[in-house]
Design a protein that fits this description.
Layout lengths: L3 E8 L4 E7 L3 E8 L2 E9 L4 E10 L11 E11 L2 E10 L1
Antiparallel strand pairs: 1-4, 2-5, 3-4, 5-7, 6-7
């Protein structure tokens, strides 16, 4: 039986990073809270945990090429540090 709950995950101001989350997590939103970037996801507490890659890119900044077999899925856009940042989940295809 699924045990669903909404969790909040902090994101560092890095071009690319991995966080541990439920393998079937559904990203709900990305927002700032108290000067930091977070994503909120609906997760199954009983699902396996996996590493999930995210990227953060500022408007006008260069975006590096993806590795073969990857694609970007837009998660959200936030405004912080007087800039606009775009958050992507990396999907392995």
């Amino acid at each position: 039986m699924k045990q669903q709950v909404i969790y909040k995950y902090p994101l560092a101001m890095l071009d690319r990073q991995e966080i541990l989350m439920s393998s079937d997590a559904e990203i709900l939103t990305a927002q700032t809270q108290e000067g930091k970037i977070f994503i909120w996801a609906l997760v199954n507490k009983t699902a396996a945990i996996e590493k999930v890659s995210f990227e953060i890119h500022g408007t006008g900044n260069p975006i590096p090429d993806l590795q073969e077999g990857e694609r970007r899925q837009w998660v959200g856009t936030v405004q912080i540090y007087a800039m606009v940042w775009h958050i992507f989940k990396i999907i392995n295809i």
